[in-house]
């Protein structure tokens, strides 16, 4: 087995970039979208799985290029390769451990690992065994980081697939693990044609049980998808939500007008988990410079910045911050603002959020030259 650096430089980042040192909060980061390329090669070799390349650098480029098509369906197909390798306790444990260490290397102090257990049963694991395997890996990563004097808090976002019919079962799974690492629930996968309202029974169960919910919406489908997530399914956060811009009239830049839903989302501080590089790849946004995240920020929406799928986008939290500074005119205060937004809306108890907020507001964040 190839030796990995414990805390590798994140995707797409200059190792000397001062933004690396800034504390960060990552709310939208898929477990199966952040594998290390060398890990993929090693796990594939163990089971004889055919990959597009057996060279780590070439494989990383293949994933990114395959996702640059502007087609969400093709983007999602790349996950066939990663999920195929995450079907045993050992592999889930390893991927989860490395996921944590990569967050630490990126300066992340709180992260939610988003993944769909129902996609990881081909090796004979039960749903509960899969969740336990990931939790053991996350815990191992946290412990390994602590040995190096690095602190991070992580949780699982248990996710159901919107094209399947197991959402109630997965909601019940999340509730069984709510005191053992599961911090929230999500639905993901192909959005267009598979509305959140198909899963209302699951969301109503979670709402009755006071369990946090975020919903992928407003990425491959438009305003109605966001409306269903917020108004029918009781989502506390929106995964992406970039197409909420379609409910805003920007014809007069000096006097933009918000539609009823956009105004509701803004005024009630419903967080938008925006992922600029990923949104550009899937054609939900035209470019980093023109990504609605900047407009939303300037209009007072509650915006959280995330990388979505670090492998597929060749990105990281640090790279997303750097892109916004270099291409969208963000400054240091904007980065602090978006980080505080994310932490305030993390699926974490208030005392724990407040403790992390002290770390986020350390003088180094405000004083660094970036």
UniProtKB/TrEMBL annotation:
Its EC number is 3.5.4.4. It comes from the Bacteria. GO terms for molecular function: hydrolase activity. Pfam families: A_deaminase. It is an enzyme of class 3 (hydrolase). Keywords: Hydrolase, Metal-binding, Zinc. The keyword Nucleotide-binding does not apply. Residues 23-360 form the Adenosine deaminase domain. InterPro entries: A_deaminase_dom, Ado/ade_deaminase, Metal_Hydrolase. Its cofactor is Zn(2+). The keyword Metal-binding applies. Belongs to the metallo-dependent hydrolases superfamily. Adenosine and AMP deaminases family. This is adenosine deaminase. It comes from Saxibacter everestensis.
